[in-house]
Write a structure and sequence with these properties.
heterodimer; A: mainly beta; 4-stranded antiparallel sheet; B: mainly beta
């Protein structure tokens, strides 16, 4: 299985901050990477697919970049609604493994 | 509107069997893979397996192969996740989700609301 490692595990930030989350794959996954946002008690919400394509309805303050084995999710100006846990997922090969998650907390 | 609606919460004893469901609507159910994802209490997301309703082709994560059975009844646009003998360690929320790519390697663009399974003696 391809291992996905996110960093940091927890991130404390303030409203308006620029936030970056990193996701590293144990081998190349080309551009088959997605990001999801999850709030407590809710199902994951798709944010980004194929590294940088925004899902419908996702605000433009979210962006994704990277290729091969290293990827980032950036929130350009953190909003109150963005405090949540974020997961990356590789879908280059089966099983489509997820990162362990990054919790974005209020500073 | 695309929707995946899952069956309700279950409380079971160790050794019991269980089958939970995920009903798709608002799209051509036969043409999109449906995956299952586990989330143990306070933990992250784990990819369990995926099924193509059109021909029932199924792929499992090695971690879940032999532990669960994924199936589908395309006549009622419903996918299933089944256990023959539950363990306490199966306690988790289980999500179904719709795949987007042609093939079992897929991200997920729509998710069910989740089914909480509690296994306790």
């Amino acid at each position: 299985d391809i291992q996905m490692t996110q960093s940091p595990s927890t991130l404390s930030a303030s409203v308006g901050d620029r936030v970056t989350i990193t996701c590293r794959a144990s081998q190349s996954i080309s551009n088959w990477l997605a990001w999801y946002q999850q709030k407590p008690g809710k199902a994951p919400r798709p944010l980004i697919y194929k590294v940088s394509s925004l899902e419908s309805g996702v605000p433009s303050r979210f962006s994704g970049s990277g290729s091969g084995t290293e990827f980032t999710l950036t929130i350009s100006s953190l909003q109150p609604d963005d405090f949540a846990t974020y997961y990356c997922q590789q879908y280059n090969s089966s099983p489509g493994t997820f990162g362990q998650g990054t919790k974005v907390e209020i500073k | 509107e695309v929707q995946l609606v899952q069956s309700g919460a279950e409380v079971k004893k160790p050794g019991e069997s269980l089958k939970i469901s995920c009903k798709g609507s608002g799209y051509n159910f036969m043409s999109y893979w449906i995956g299952w994802v586990r989330q143990m209490p306070g933990k992250g997301l784990e990819w369990m397996g995926i099924i193509y309703p059109g021909d029932s082709e199924t792929r499992y994560s090695p971690s879940f192969q032999g532990q669960v059975i994924i199936s589908v009844d395309k006549s009622i646009s419903t996918a299933y996740l089944q256990w023959r003998s539950l363990k306490a360690s199966d306690t988790a929320i289980y999500y179904c989700a719709r795949g987007t790519r042609d093939g079992y390697n897929s991200n997920f663009d729509y998710w069910g609301q989740g089914t909480l399974v509690t296994v306790s003696s």
